[in-house]
Every structure is written in structure tokens, then in C-alpha cells.
UniProtKB/TrEMBL annotation:
Gene Ontology molecular-function annotations: galactokinase activity
Residues annotated for Mg(2+) binding in this entry: 127, 159
Source organism of this protein record: Streptomyces katrae
HAMAP family assigned to the protein according to its UniProt record, in alphabetical order: Galactokinase
Protein name, per record: Galactokinase
Catalytic activity entry: alpha-D-galactose + ATP = alpha-D-galactose 1-phosphate + ADP + H(+)
UniProt-listed Enzyme Commission number(s): 2.7.1.6
Amino acid sequence: MTARVREEFRRIHGHPPEGVWAAPGRVNLIGEHTDYNDGFALPMALPRTTLLAARRRGDGLLRVHSAQGDGRVAEFAVDGLAPGAAGGWARYPAGVVWALRERGLPVGGADLHVDSTVPAGAGLSSSAALECAVAVAYDELYGLRLERTELARVAQYAENAFAGVPCGVMDQMASLCCAEGSALHLDSRGPSVRQVPFDLTGHGLSLLVLDTRVKHDLADGAYAALRAGCERAARLLGLPALRDLGERGLAGALAELPGELVPLVRHVVTENARVGRAVDVLTAGEPEALGPLLTAGHASLRDDYRVSCPETDLAVDAAVAAGALGARMTGGGFGGSVIALVPAWRAESVGRAVSEAFAAAGFVRPAVLDAVPSAGARRIA
């Protein structure tokens, strides 16, 4: 695929790229909707990546093309970039360049060509993969030498302020900082990260990603409303963020809050606790013990945070009934994907059971992917 990206870049832009970079999508094992509450998460990178071929330009133009786009090259004057200046997929690469310039960094134009195997709208962070591929390419092309955590903040700012999605930093941190064979324990307040060994094969396990094919758009207002509710709850409780409320103080805090905020706070606090327990079981070399934590996390997302949907609920129920150790939706919700931790010898039968359940319910057949903990963003050519 690298050779194809290089050749397509040459065909589209008329000269060879200076390099090719890759940034992965991610699944989040546990810790959903916690990052914008300064909380904890445990994502891992996927082997599916966004590839970006790039070459600097000296005329101040940013020209971007995607193999998954409409065939046209979108062109922008770098010094004219501002929120609202780009739409569709192009707002993500344009937003990263804008965000770098907003920090006063000396970056100019570039020719870019993108090709991705990260499914869009599946809750696997296709937008963050694109942003992070641009971020690492620009970091090298323009000699910025930024730390990975700083690049993640740049990419998050691009998605927040330029693309209009009020996400936390987890997706970008996962795409930039994950390591092969490990999950990433993220403390969003720093942000700071540490690698936690996640040996699926050695324990006879598989992690299935069940793409329900229900597309979601986190810029449609629902995500922003959830974040605003959490921030309001923290203010009412006199806390910097909900991360500062532990399980011991939860009951008392819930009694002080308006009813509509109670389930949001309960989810965030219990989800942070589940992340801590997940790190403990992985550190102890007991990844099979993740299963019940996944299923409990899904129940919280479904019943308290209310970001599930019939397709994701069915995928979880069917996977567990077929022998999965645990399952839950992953990503922001309102569709997207479910992860299921299964004994490796049952992976095929669990995937088949979910597909059969979808067919019986009249849903579109899900895509079933096998996920392994993979490397973060990097130059590949």
C-alpha cells in the first residue's frame, strides 16, 4: 500500500513525496467519555492506518487529496486558514496546519495525499488518525521536534476549534503514543501515558471489533451536550473536573445534583474506576479478567450515558451469549463499533453469532475485524 500511495501522490501532484507517514485508528478497551472530564482511559492502536504522502510547498498553498474522497484536490492558502474555511474530510488536515500556525510555529504549505484503511464513522477514530498523520508529517517536514503529547494536543485543538467536535484528547493520544503489544494507560489531565502489556495471543484470546455500520457524527450536538452536562455538574460540585470525584464520594455528590445530571456523573466516576481495575488485571497478567469490566462499561454507557443504540446493544448481547468473556461499544457512541474479548478458539463462532443476530433483526450485516495492539504514528517511507 505504501508504494501505491507514493505513486498516487506522484500522479496527482506531479512530483514524488518527501516521505510517507502512517497513523492508526484505535479501539478503547475501557474509559469512555472520561477524557474530557480529565479522567482515565485505556485505548490501543489498531493495525488499520491512515497513510499520508507529503511534500513541502514554498508558495503557501495546502493541497490535499484523499483516495476515499470525490477525486478532487482541495486547495487552501495557509495564511487564510480559519475555522469554517474547509468542510468535509479536508477540515481535519487543514485544521492541523491551522492549529500549528496558531501556536506560532513556522509551518507553510504542502501537497498531501491520503489513503486509509480505518473505517469512517465506525467509532475507530478515523478523523484522529488523519489528524495525527498530518501532525507527524508536518513535525518532521518542518523540523518542529514536538513531543508526542504536544502533537496530540495540537490535533485535538484542530478537531475542537477548527472541525467543531468538542472531543477530549484520548483519540489523538492513542494514535500518536500507542506501542505494539500494549494498551495505553492515559491520564488526560497531564496528559501523561504509560504502556501496559496486553498479550492476547499468549493467553489464547482474541479481541474482535464488530462494526455495526451505523454511522455517527459527533459534530451533531449530542456529544457537545454530554460534555456540557459533565462540566455543569463539576461546577455545581465545586470540582475542577469530574475526575476529582471518587467512588467513595459518589453517593453524596449525586444527592446534591439535579436529576438530569445524576446518570452522567455516575457513569464518569464508575468508568474511571473500571479503568483502574483494568490496568490492575493487565499488569497482573490476567487479560481474561477484562471481560466483566467491558460488559459493565457497556451497561453504564447504555443506561446512564445513553449513547448506545439497538445495533450496539444487540452486538454486545449476542457476543456474550455466544461465549465472549465480555463486550461493549467503543468510541463516542450513537452507532459505531463494539469490541468483544473472546477465547481465540471461539472467535469465528462469536462473529458468526453476531452476524446471524443482525440478520434476524433486519440489520445490515456487521463487519468483523480482529484487533491486535499495534504501533502508533510513524514514518514508514
